[in-house]
Amino acid sequence: MWLFGRLARSLKNGSTSDGGEAPPADERRKHARHPFGAPTMVVLPGEPSGVRAFIRDISKGGCLLDTEAKVQVGARLSLAFLSKSGGHCHAVGCVVRVADNRHFGVQFSQVNMAFLGFVGSVSSTSPEGRGDLIAAMRGSTIEIDSAP
């Protein structure tokens, strides 16, 4: 009974075991999203140059991007960048949602420890203080590996 009460209090207070905020009750995502706002490039198969993109939010389980790149639901991709601490962050996933041909949602299926550490840093830093984290991501790329 004691454990149930503790769990209920933690859910009520909005805390989670991973140190982040709990998603709202109607949220289907497993991990809390953090507003981010980092520029990146989307590289499409067979294209010599990338298309500008903007990482709107990020979590341990995915991200939301704004871009003019044409992507389809089911496309596999990888995200890679260096973090402020110099770690090589890498995540692999697929596009799970496209909206208005300008936004696409990604669900990660594989992430490395450096990526998890980076997202932990994002979650523990105020939105106003994330400038250094964003600046360290310069040169990040999202490579679309294959179409669905």
What's the structural blueprint in terms of helices and strands?
Blueprint: H1 2-13, E1 34-43, E2 51-58, E3 62-67, E4 76-82, E5 88-99, E6 103-111, H2 113-124, H3 131-136, E7 141-146
Parallel strand pairs: 1-7
Antiparallel strand pairs: 1-2, 2-3, 3-6, 4-5, 4-7, 5-6
Nutshell version of this structure?
With 148 residues, this protein is α+β, with helices and mostly antiparallel strands.
Description:
This protein has 148 residues and is α+β, with helices and mostly antiparallel strands. The chain folds into two domains: 1-29, no CATH class; 33-146, Thrombin, subunit H (Beta Barrel). It is 20% helix and 39% strand. The chain has three helices and seven strands. It has helices at 2-13, 113-124, 131-136, and strands at residues 34-43, 51-58, 62-67, 76-82, 88-99, 103-111, 141-146. A seven-stranded mixed beta barrel has the order 1-2-3-6-5-4-7. A hairpin with a 3-residue loop joins strand 2 (51-58) and strand 3 (62-67). The longest helix is centred in the N-terminal third of the chain and has 12 residues, at 2-13. Mean pLDDT is 82; it is low at 1-26.
